[in-house]
What does this fold into?
Amino acid sequence: MDMVAPDDMVETKRELRNEIVENKVEPAMVKDINKTKKKKMVAKTDITGDLNDRIYGIVGHTKHSLSSLLVNPHVFDFEERAAEEKIILVARPHWFTNVSWIIISILLVLAPSLLGFIPIIDDIPARFKTIGVLVWYLITFAYAFENFLSWYFDVYIITDERVIDISFNNLLDKKFSEAKLSMIQDVTSRVSGLGQTMFNYGTVYIQTAAEVAEIQFEMIPNPEKIIKVLQLLRQEEERETLEGRVR
Amino acid sequence: MFPDFTNYLVLVEKIFGIVGSLIYLIFALVIVKQVNTMTRNVRDKFNGILIVFSYIHLVVAILLVFLAWIIL
It folds into this structure.
């Protein structure tokens, strides 16, 4: 279970002190107010802890930075995160989507040694061979590196407030889309093709009433689990609205 | 008598080599910039390693320019 944050306690104490000074509250009443506020905070952390357990129950404990699904990550963060916003889940495309570029990269690495068997290569001067091999390996590295960057930094984030899609389409293009959990209207998923069916990954389509009409979580593993997590968080969001706990 | 084009060919090769390697150097600089932007936007465990890789790539691209200048 999560502990009450020290900052919250300091804030509570400060509020109480202000109430005493401004409203001349009796010391006996201070204890009651303190108890009530503590109870409220403990209740809130109970709900958060319970929610965490339920999400772990759905998705499991995956925290490795190279994992396609990260639940309650400790290290992960993003620039647009609000101070109080808590990251619930981070999703990247399934590892199987990387297989094609990994195979191509391996073939590109091996290609210069295979070219040695072609007699015409022997006629090329040594200085051109040296530069050619260096350029070849640089381009191979750049190809593999770019593909890895695309996979690593194209992330789909679910926080306790919103769903976010951060994608870098090419070298100089960044796209940031978000929708509040309360704005989500409809969630559907699609798993199609042999690879997706075998490895259980696909695309989750999140229809929203926000400015961005649809957010897509593309090629993510276990789409049905993501839908369950979103359902759970939407229910929690609705409960917060009813109880007046909305930030 | 045929004029000797060998020297001109060597010069053209050298110019192509240097211009090509300079273009690649610009590409390597763009990758460094891109990795910095990405790591600033999304912070995760391997960001440091990725930045180091992008700079190693840049250093090798600079070496390529010198090699093209010296060898070709």
Remarks:
- The first helix of chain B runs from residue 6 to 41.
- The two ends of chain B are 28 Å apart (CA to CA).
- Chain B touches chain A through 31 residues (CB under 8 Å).
